[in-house]
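Hi V.,

You were right to ask for the full record rather than a summary. Here it is.
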Amino acid sequence: MSQEVVVDVAPTKASPFYDPKLRSIVVQVAIIVLLVLALWWISDNTIENLRRSNIPTGFEFLNSRSGFEIPDRLIDYSSESSYGRALLVGIVNTVRVAVLGIIVATIIGFVVGIGRLSSNWMIRKLATIYIEVFRNVPLLLVILFWYQGVLALLPNVRSSLALPFGSYLNNRGLYLPRLIWSQGAWLIIAGLMIAIGLSWYVARRARARQMATGQQLPVFWVSVALLIGLPLLGCVLAGFPMTVEFPQKGTFMLTGGLDVKPEFLSLLLALSFYTASFIAEIVRAGIQGVPKGQAEAYSSLGIRPGQGLRLVIIPQALRIIIPLLTSQYLNLTKNSSLAVAVGYADLYAVGGTILNQTGRAIEVVVIFMVVYLGLSILTSLVMNWFNVKLALRQR
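Predicted structure:
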């Protein structure tokens, strides 16, 4: 009678490298180490080559006297200011044209994008022509068109075009009334901040009520009343702590008021109209991405097309539009570096002047990279937050 012999075989232990999680960690750590070594090697060689060439390094030059003027600025600056102050002026100018350009381009882009889908043949064709023209022309040519082909051809100071509210337009720029604030003006700012907070609260409560009952509140007109009424109340309580300075037209020049120079105007208009052509196509694609059944649904409920577009189609289309819109905002901010073509003192133009005077090419380029990277990351964070707020939430 045979007897079975049972032999215990120890299980073969698999190699740790076959663990996907461990393998991914090892690969990522190796890539990070290689990147750090590469950056260290590049920086070490750069510093060594600069030392051999007797070229100083460091950012201490930012404290030196700049010696040049910047005519278009929002903060105090003179030729006696430091290079660091000059760069700050350039950063502020870059942020100003980028923020205003984003606002103007978004408004134009949405209007043209909706017009692209209009049932009116003339509006639809005009929107198409606008998009095809601006989208297929280099941005630099658009900037030069506004600067040399439009603003430079305006009348001189003596023949300035008179605009409403005491404003003037000529080949030296746009002259607007300027508010001069005095003591107690903080009440107006406080009223505006309170009005913005209350408008947000009213919009939030109105949306909750609409979701619960279907009833709509006049949020727009309530917000307008708050934004006008509360600052006006603060102005009255403070005893009208402001005066208005109007531009005064002379024989050879305009004095007083707020002077918007042609370099800034041409750059702002070029960036806005150029970027708006891309935004318009994004808006058109977003609206067409909403199922047609949504339009049929609000039409069957007796909702007018304009109201249905505003309340039904656009909110859904925004989920498609926002991610693509972020890229256009980033492009607009970086494209503002073309301001040097018309002499607008943005970060790149000011930095270029500093580079020519000091020879600190590496330091100035590093500042360029850090500032533009910071602006891009900040824009992305804001747009991503807005995109998350609009995302559908699973129940």
